[in-house]
Each structure stands twice: as structure tokens, then as C-alpha cells.
Amino acid sequence: MTCTAMAKQEGFTLLEVLIALAVFALLSTTVVSASGYVVFQQTGLHERLLAAWLVDNHLTELSLNPRKSASQSVTRRMGEREWTLHETWRDTGDAGLTWVEVSVVLSDSEQVLASNHLGFQADTHEH
Question: Which of 3.90.550.10, 1.10.8.420, 3.30.1300.30, 3.60.15.30 is the CATH number of 15-121?
């Protein structure tokens, strides 16, 4: 080959192709890792949202059907999963109010997903 023939060749060298592949592999790995993190966070958010709805629903049920109770646990089904709600009742010192805390865990887990949702139950027998 002559010098003029070599100068007219077009294309990439092997080194340029390898560098391009390395950059592509690095970017692809980063995108896949970030996607996995987003899916993980979305699942956690979905569980916390359902747990918050369960607590709000339970406190609403207690306000519609007032009762005086000791601490107890109840099981509910929502989002195709079993949830356990733990009620804790305490005296407020006020004869007309009782303090209620409801926390929620998935029935197959011990991780509390929603807690410190407080409500105050009015005593109904003082009307």
C-alpha cells in the first residue's frame, strides 16, 4: 500500500472501538443499577402508602364505632396482602378522651411500616 492509500482509509481503529465499548458497558451498568434502585423504592413506597391507608381507615372505624378497649391486634387484607394492625390504648388524664396509637406491619414481616398514627377516642357514655 502506498502512503496515499493509507491516508484515504476510513473507519475506527481497534483501540477506539474498545474504548467505545468500555464506555457503553459502564453507562449500561449504571442505568441498570439505577433502575433496580427505583423499583426497590417504588415497592417500599407502595407498602408504606397501603399501611398509612390502613391506619387511617382503622382510626375512622374507631371514631364511627366508639369503644373502650385494651391494646389489641387485628388482621386486615389489602393490596392482596395480609396486614396486622396493633392498637395501643392509653389514658390521657382527661375523662372524655382516650389516646389510641395504631401501627401496621405486614403479617409475614416484623418491620413496622406505619406507626405513631395517633387518634383520640371520645368516651361515648358521658353524653
Answer: 3.30.1300.30
